[in-house]
UniProtKB/TrEMBL annotation:
Positions of the UniProt region annotated as Disordered: 316-336
Protein known as: Amino acid ABC transporter membrane protein (PAAT family)
Entry-linked InterPro entries: AA_ABC_transptr_permease_3TM, ArtM/GltK/GlnP/TcyL/YhdX-like, MetI-like, MetI-like_sf
Main localization category: membrane
Xref: PROSITE patterns: ABC_TM1
Organism: Leucobacter luti
Length: 336
């Protein structure tokens, strides 16, 4: 037997070290004393404010708040506020989708028209726009239908055709459509271009590509800001007094306060109902976001190895018949 073989035979295979005695790690929790102090201070301040508002501020007049909280005029005003919100948002979403597609159009004229619309309605305050819409029956007293430069076939009085409620809905919807267009455009751009190319390769037309491939993926990006816009629209309805439309929640409570000479309780009543409605909308937004986010944040379970790591041998360490230079002392025939 050669010296290399005898040296390899005389070597002793390394024995695995005995496992250490496993003991529980004694972790010391990191303390945040100033965080606790800040929380206590905030709780004390909140408690003092509530106590002061409940007992030391007669101007709040909580009895008056309870008296008008469920008043029929207030409940009716809530209905008008919800109608303004729903109708305006439906029109704004539909028009926003159209404007977003126009903004992404390869036609420069179509893109320019959409850009000018966004420039005008995003660049001017919504209150100013509502004032203009309230003046439409004054500026355009009649609407004439017929062939241009010929005698009108039909003449409609604008004041009778467009009520203040309708003008308020139009004003809110056209303003909100400018913001919804940018939200929808951002959602469409968030979808990888390869999705659109794959749909075209499969023979899908534009409509099927948009409704079955692009929009379902873009909704995950569109829904959160759209929910915020719905809540914002609910509060923006308080500005329709500029049209003027006076049957929504804020203006109605203000009219009641002008009779009772107690504006603060009526402001609390309006704020209470705004908070109730926005809370319901926030819950609905949460579940809609959860629905469209299915499968996005989920990850597959980590695959467990079929063989324990300790059983797997390491080439070069587990073979006792290796020589010092790393070559095996075994011969092709299986003998040393």
């Amino acid at each position: 037997m050669s010296e290399a073989s005898s040296g390899a035979a005389g070597r002793v295979a390394p024995q695995p070290e005995a496992p250490l005695d496993p003991r529980a790690i004694e972790a010391i929790k990191l303390r945040h004393p100033w965080r606790t102090v800040l929380a206590v201070v905030l709780v004390i301040i909140a408690g003092l404010f509530i106590y002061d508002a409940a007992f030391n501020r007669p101007v709040y007049n909580w009895a008056e708040v309870g008296k008008y909280l469920f008043d029929t005029r207030v409940i009716s005003a809530i209905g008008y506020t919800l109608q303004l919100t729903v109708y305006s948002m439906i029109i704004a979403v539909v028009l926003g989708v159209v404007l977003a597609i126009m903004r992404l159009s390869p036609n420069p004229v179509v893109r320019a028209v959409a850009w000018v619309y966004l420039w005008v309605f995003r660049g001017t305050p919504v209150y100013v726009q509502l004032v203009f819409w309230g003046m439409v029956p004054v500026v355009y007293k009649t609407i004439e239908l017929g062939i241009p430069f010929t005698e009108a076939v039909m003449t409609i009085t604008t004041k009778d055709f467009l009520s203040y409620f309708t003008l308020a809905v139009i004003g809110l919807a056209l303003n909100e459509a400018a913001y919804m267009a940018e939200i929808v455009r951002a959602g469409l751009l968030s979808v990888d271009k390869g999705q659109d190319e794959a749909a075209v390769a499969l023979g899908l037309g534009w409509w099927h590509t948009m409704t079955r491939v692009v929009l379902p993926q873009a909704m995950r990006v569109i829904i959160p800001p759209t929910g915020n816009e719905v809540i914002s629209m609910l509060k923006t309805t308080s500005l329709v007094t500029a049209v003027p439309f006076t049957l929504e929640l804020y203006t109605r409570t203000r009219d009641i306060a002008s009779v009772t000479y107690q504006p603060v309780p009526m402001l609390i009543v309006a704020s209470f109902w705004y908070l109730v409605i926005t809370s319901i909308l926030m819950v609905g937004q949460y579940y809609v976001e959860k629905h469209f986010a299915k499968g996005v944040a989920q990850r597959p379970d980590v695959m467990k190895p079929s063989v324990e790591t300790g059983v797997v041998g390491v080439v070069g360490l587990d073979d006792p018949e290796l020589t010092d230079d790393g070559t095996s002392s075994r011969r092709p025939g299986g003998t040393s």
